[in-house]
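Now read the record:
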Amino acid sequence: MIDRPALRRTRSRNAAHAVLAALALAAIAPEAAAIGRTFVASFGLDTNACSLSLPCRGFSAALVQTDPGGEIVVLDSAGYGAVTIGKSVSIVVPAGIYAGISVLAGDGITINGAGINVTLQGLTINGQGGAHGVRFVQGTRLNVAGCQISSMGGNGVRVEGAGTVVVTQTSIVGSGQEGVFVNAAANVSVVRSRISSSAGTGIEMTGGASGSVTRSLVSDNGLFGIEALQTTAGTTRIAIDDTTITDNDTATGIYAEGSGASAIAQIDITNSLVTRNFNGVFAFSQGSGTATIGSTGNDIVENLQTGVSTATTGSTTIVAASKNGVFRNAVAGFVQSSGSLFTPCTTNPCGATPVFTNYVSDNAGGDNFGATPDPSIQ
């Protein structure tokens, strides 16, 4: 005979045990599964759950535990190791905390994932034999904000894939090649940042890139300050505004070169200071390429050679300059050795003795060598 009261008591105990087990699993689930916010600390362990109470030690371990679209937060000052990011995530370093990555070999941070959005905020990346500080291989968007990137053997920031990259309030110093190098049809902006002391060019864009540099300092680089270079069919464009380009005294402050059939390099610079470079602003084309520079409202002063110049080997080079101050350059203000260098005049037509709207004065070797006044502009 079945003891029904005993059976009911057994079923009740089993149900109670199931409820307790479910509650226990719910309590530990946030610690064991991937979560939206993870933490790293100097006292953490990579075997931990990367929670606030049990932080991980390095970025790579925390990344595994972080949900796509989540963030990794640094709790205290330490080094946290290089990392390759293949999903959307933010790495956030609060103010007053040092979060370092010593790059002994390879790259500091690599972004490589289709459709991902990544933010790097407040990191210090130091090259100690490694190649690139931040390398963007694939993704939709990368934000580099408030970071310090120094002494990389290659580039401070390297962009190899199409996407949007924004570098804001970041210092990139002492790169062995370019400070910022873009070799893809990406949209790249450098805002309120310092790019200096690179062995190569401060900011170089090529490969069909569209870029902008705003309210920044580009200084003391071994070759060009800012360069747009296009060597194959396509167009690379850079817009520069409210930026100081100085002491790039081996080559040129602002340089555009189109080289090859249907290759176009274009720079537009406004409201900026171009000073103490070898040449100030220089456009050059060859091999059926096109180089164009528009220069408006800039001070182009005290460069070691020319202020504004053009050259070409049978291709198309155009510089249009208006409302600039071009003075105290060591060789000349305007030099049109070949190509076209247009400056507007104040009357239409210009007349026998045109008056240019640029202020061109006190250039040691002469103010104007061949610049063509444009009668269509008043």
Notes: Confidence is low (pLDDT under 50) at residues 4-32. Residues 1-32 form one domain. The chain is about 10% helix and 45% strand. The chain has three domains: 1-32, 33-171, 200-378.
